[in-house]
Design brief:
Layout lengths: L2 H23 L3 H29 L5 H14 L3 H30 L9 E4 L5 E4 L9 E4 L9 E5 L2 E4 L1 H4 L5 E3 L4 E2 L4 E2 L4 E5 L7 H11 L6 H32 L3 H15 L2 H20 L2 E3 L2 H8 L1 E7 H5 L5 E7 L21 H11 L6 H10 L8 E7 L3 E6 L2 E6 L1 H6 L13 E7 L2 E9 L6 H10 L4 E5 L4 H11 L3 E3 L4 H14 L4 E6 L5 H6 L2 E5 L5 H6 L2 E3 L5 H36 L5 H20 L10
Helix pairs in contact: 1-2, 1-4, 2-3, 2-4, 3-4, 3-8, 4-9, 4-21, 7-8, 7-9, 8-20, 8-21, 9-20, 9-21, 10-20, 12-13, 15-20, 20-21
The structure holds adenosine-5'-diphosphate and magnesium ion.
Length: 636
């Protein structure tokens, strides 16, 4: 509880004691009146001021206004105790609300714990000094000691250690790093001292981007929330006018007692206060987003949480999403292998054909600047240092491959589409199933390297679990070879697959899937590498493996910090639970309201019943919303 809340609690307790004292010892007369008024003002002066301010600014029909006229009315008709009680319990509800909001905000900002306070850099004397992370520049070397937070993204140049990524990914397993590994800001360095060459400025670092994303998540309102604000806009005036009618019409028509009917109208006002709805719906979404962030799932707004709960088709990108994206080289086939190549003139590449080593070298050099998983794997397979002075102009064509100038030769490395594009004579498919990277020099085919990728351990299970949570259809889109796509889809149990797609074809397929889909929503899961257009086109774009990938964080609606496909299932479960709670709260609060309103209008429920109904409903709805702050993590 913070100081403001403690003060509010004090005011509530003092007022309550004064009110009870007055009720016991001086229910009537001047002393009682003074005690009741003091109690009322101590607890209610803020609401009175707010209501007055709202009236001045013209937006007066809010719950402060309702409470103010109801309580002042109660005083005016001689019901001092009731007037006090309404204000006191209204404040109890408010206190409860701010406590709950704070608590779930904290669970989101448990992530704020990832914000580093300082970075250690070496000064001229070789001593370590602490500086603010935003003063460190790209290329600077920082030291991170055991137990410290890694302040900036970078590459380890010295030392080995294990890092705890749990604050970012929700994954408790520590990761080993050594010289050459990339490290990400926000992780904790657990065991050894490491020196890190910084690769991104603080403003661009993973930590800053995540914090920015989390801070903005509450601005994107869901349909349910918009519904509630619209509802409140019409509801409150209706209630006020109904109360007015209730106070005036029955006594005029039946000739009854004005005071009785005014009291009934006031009761009606108290009952009808929409606090419980106004508070609990955003809180329920907030709880869901907070719970998800603890599992390393960042949701950019409650609208996406809502859409996610209605997903019934999940479309996947293949490489890096369902598969590990680390290709193993399984074969290198130069075109003249065993002298079988008829089309080869045997002298198109420095006077002879390329051999296996040269083929791999050319591929690795051509791919040198690419971020595609294929490129990483080829460079890894080549394993030797790349001399970048040998590389000239490089041109990556998404969904095709790379054209590069190496030692003055123009080399193309990519799929058959690229070979057609550069019109490579003699290019042919490989008999082996796998992703083939074909290589050509100036329109002459040199051969191909066959690489293959394996599915992630959890992909198959994730597809199965998606089915069991009610996702109707799973689809895989890939730019890879048809045979590779077919094999992978069968292996993982995916319903439909589309292969050999260019990034633009993927968008087109997504459009088709979207238009074939009726009520349900379509989610797309990708890694953000060349699939950003599809990510943004889907109803819900989910990017995975976001640790360090800016493109993914940017384009997606939901960001999975690590690359475990099971997190998609977790995210859907969290969203369904949040939406279920939202619905429960709407039905429950409106239900109770309607019942008490009717009872109140007929004079069966008095002011006391009204107060307890209102505060009670709010508190139950808030507790219900808070249920999910501790999320359902499946760790089995
Ligand atoms: P996926 O849908 O499987 O993620 P991409 O759209 O990333 O596939 O790539 C589609 C295909 O384009 C790859 O299977 C590969 O044949 C070719 N390709 C794309 N980028 C490269 C590259 N940098 N080097 C070689 N081939 C590439
Ligand atoms: Mg891809």
């Amino acid at each position: 509880m913070n100081r403001k809340q403690k003060k509010q609690l004090c005011a509530i307790v003092i007022s309550l004691l004064l009110m009870i004292g007055a009720m016991l010892f001086a229910p009537d007369g001047i002393v009682g009146g003074v005690l009741f008024c003091t109690a009322y003002l101590i607890v209610g002066y803020k609401a009175l001021i707010k209501a007055a301010k709202n009236i001045v600014s013209g937006h007066f029909l809010d719950e402060n206004f309702l409470m103010t006229i109801a309580t002042i009315g109660a005083f005016a008709t001689g019901e001092y105790a009731e007037g006090c009680a309404v204000m006191i319990f209204y404040q109890v509800g408010e206190l409860f609300e701010s406590y709950a909001v704070n608590k779930s905000r904290k669970s989101i900002t448990a992530l704020m714990d990832i914000r580093p306070d300082y970075a250690n850099v070496e000064n001229e004397k070789g001593e370590l000094v602490q500086v603010s992370p935003d003063t460190v520049k790209i290329g600077d070397v920082i030291a991170v000691k055991a137990g410290e937070k890694i302040p900036l993204d970078g590459i380890v140049i010295e030392g080995t250690t294990t890092v705890d990524t749990s604050a970012l990914t929700g994954e408790s397993l520590p990761r080993d790093v050594a010289a050459g590994s990339g490290v990400i800001s926000g992780c904790i360095n657990m065991t050894g001292l490491i020196r890190v060459r910084v690769t991104k400025e603080f403003g661009e670092s993973t930590v800053s981007r995540i914090l920015e994303l989390v801070e903005n998540s509450s601005t994107k309102k869901s349909k349910s929330e918009n519904f509630i604000s619209k509802f409140a806009k019409y509801y409150t005036p209706i209630v006020v006018f109904s109360a007015l009618a209730l106070a005036v019409i029955p006594p005029l028509v039946t000739g009854g007692d004005f005071v009785t009917w005014i009291q009934r109208a006031l009761t009606f006002l108290v009952i009808s206060c929409p606090c419980a709805l106004v508070i609990s719906i955003p809180l329920s979404f907030f709880g869901g987003i907070g719970g998800a962030s603890r599992c390393g799932i960042l949701i950019k707004g409650s609208n996406y949480l809502e859409a996610l709960s209605k997903v019934d088709t999940v479309v996947f990108d293949k490489t890096g999403t369902l598969t590990k994206g680390t290709f193993e080289v399984t074969a290198v086939h130069p075109c003249n292998e065993n002298g079988e190549c008829e089309n080869c003139s045997h002298k198109h590449f420095h006077g002879k054909c390329a051999d296996k080593n040269e083929l791999l070298e050319l591929a690795a050099y051509a791919e040198c600047y690419s971020d595609h998983p294929i490129s990483h794997s080829l460079r890894k397979a080549y394993a030797k240092e790349i001399d970048s002075s040998r590389i000239g102009e490089v041109n990556e064509i998404s969904g095709h491959g790379v054209n590069a100038v190496i030692d003055g030769n123009s080399i193309s490395a990519g799929n058959m589409k690229l070979m057609e594009m550069v019109d490579a004579k003699g290019a042919h498919e490989c008999h082996k199933t796998g992703t083939a990277v074909h290589i050509a020099h100036d329109g002459e085919y040199l051969g191909h390297i066959v690489i293959s990728d394996v599915p992630k351990e959890d992909s198959q299970r994730a597809i199965g679990e998606l089915k069991s949570v009610g996702v109707r259809k799973t689809v895989m889109l890939t730019g890879d070879d048809r045979r590779v796509g077919e094999k992978m889809a069968a292996e993982l149990g995916i319903d439909e697959y589309y292969a050999e797609l260019l990034p633009a074809d993927k968008v087109e397929r997504m459009e088709e899937i979207l238009s074939a889909e009726g009520e349900g929503k379509v989610a797309f899961v990708g890694d953000g590498i060349n699939d950003a257009p599809v990510l943004s086109r889907a109803d819900v774009g989910i990017a995975m493996g976001a640790m360090g990938s800016d493109a993914a964080i940017e384009a997606a609606d939901i960001v999975l910090m690590d690359d475990n496909p099971l997190k998609i299932v977790t995210a859907i479960k969290i969203s369904r639970k949040a939406l279920k709670i939202v619905k429960e709260n709407i039905v429950f609060t409106i239900g109770i309201k309607v019942i008490t309103l009717i009872l109140g209008a007929f004079g069966i429920a008095n002011m006391w019943a009204a107060v307890f109904a209102d505060v009670g409903v709010s508190i139950i709805a808030i507790l219900n919303a808070m249920r999910q702050v501790v999320p359902p993590v499946n760790k089995d």
